[in-house]
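Example record for the data management plan.
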Amino acid sequence: MKTKNTLNPSQLRSNIYKWISTVLVSLVAVLFLFPLYWIITGAFKNGVDINSAEPVWWPSEWVMTNFQKLMDRRSSPLFEFTIGNLTFVGPKIPSAILWLINSVVMAVGSMLLTCLTSAMAGYVLAKKKFWGRGIIFGLIVCAMALPKQVILIPLVRQMSSMKMWDTMWAVIFPIVGWPFGVFLLKQFSEGIPTEMVEACRIDGASEWRTFTDVMFPMIKPGVGACAIFTFINAWNDYFMQLIMLTKTENLTIALGIATMQGESSTDFGLLMAGSALASVPIIIIFLIFQKYFTKGITMGAVKG
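Corresponding structural encoding:
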């Protein structure tokens, strides 16, 4: 005689919670993915669908007109620099491509420099004992709550005095000293046993080799999380870019698309195409660092 399998109350509650969690997570995922879906589909819609009074959820006709306008509206030389009396000008390309290159150079440069300096500063604050260490870390924590608008005028004057205003360095260097990166990697460095650092010192390893061969590989999850945060922060810092950059050839993709808008009308198709183009690097960076990002969030959040 076969017996019918029945779930006990605890298993039944577990299955119910599992299904409820799956449904809620799916709904949240749909809400977060919807803006990206709307941008991508909007980039391929014609003017009638975009300006329709009722939302058009799927393009009635897939067109490349918006991307053509984005590429054909303006053109700029790929590079231009002067050595003595000679001026070298590169081939002309669509300004949107140049702006995208500028954005990638700015965000990647900020990411690399921030991760390197934050990792070194976090290592020193976590593993080195010196007078004023607590004061320095306290100032870094306080700086995390300081709005960037408060220090914007000093930053502009500093970049201008260093002859860096209206260059890529004017938007890279202010991000390099990001307090959150130092705070995050200090928490990770504190989780590394101090005995490992002392063993390296006993073996005669220099401070630089101790950092590069022992500490840095062990805090890679934190560096991955810091890389994603820094890249997104630099990419989305529209206000800083607006203040620091003015020349057409130095603009980022966000500023460049804003300058292509008319005073009395808005070309939403052009905006959608530019936004779709600008979202590609962020998606690529997240896919590259997502393993370190998720591991870094789960590990770094409980240390302190």
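Summary line stored alongside the record: The longest helix spans residues 9-43.
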